[in-house]
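Renewal narrative, Specific Aim 1. Our central claim is that a sequence can be written position by position from structural information alone. The example that follows is taken directly from our test logs and has not been curated for this report. It begins with the structure tokens describing the chain, in the order in which they were read.
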């Protein structure tokens, strides 16, 4: 695994047009960011409503209101990204796996083909582990709901673009296809 700051990995050996790949019509980064805003609000409303119903009217929903919350967020980011990485076919030590930043966003990229189903699992795994499971624990037990609710809410904000990517891949790429990325563009083929 390698790390990059403010750029995408070079993948000069990959020539999608000559290798039979089809480009996916994807929104620009700015449009994707704007599309993520309603996803954040809707998901926070749903999670907040479930927590409010379970924990009662006295429960105050806040995501970041202390230094401790900032530390939780800083710890959550690498955990979230590693949950994407563990789904990739190669080991974490592979030089085909990148974690990077670009325009303030954090991304994970794998430079080889990955099956559509596995790619979708990689997109949704952080949501399952860091949002759905904590909410289910809160709804079914009396465990530390403050910490778990913050983790669930913070992760849902981190996952907003993952939700949009999941929908895009699910709706635009046929079943059993393989996906590969070059810069910020995704391609597929059988």
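The sequence written for that structure reads:
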């Amino acid at each position: 695994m390698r790390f990059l700051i403010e750029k995408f990995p070079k993948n000069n050996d990959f020539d999608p047009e000559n290798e039979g790949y089809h480009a996916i019509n994807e929104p620009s980064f700015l449009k994707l960011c704007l599309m993520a805003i309603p996803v954040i609000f809707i998901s926070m409303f749903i999670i907040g409503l479930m927590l409010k119903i379970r924990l009662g009217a006295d429960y105050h929903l806040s995501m970041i209101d202390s230094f401790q919350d900032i530390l939780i967020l800083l710890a959550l980011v690498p955990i979230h990204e590693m949950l994407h990485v563990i789904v990739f076919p190669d080991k974490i030590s592979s030089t085909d796996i990148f974690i990077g930043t670009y325009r303030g966003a954090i991304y994970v990229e794998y430079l080889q083909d990955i099956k559509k189903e596995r790619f979708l699992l990689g997109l949704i795994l952080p949501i399952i582990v860091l949002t759905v499971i904590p909410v289910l624990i809160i709804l079914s037990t009396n465990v530390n709901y403050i910490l778990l609710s913050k983790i669930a809410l913070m992760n849902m904000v981190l996952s907003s673009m993952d939700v949009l990517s999941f929908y895009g891949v699910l709706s635009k790429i046929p079943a059993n296809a393989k996906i590969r990325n070059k810069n910020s563009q995704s391609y597929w083929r059988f």
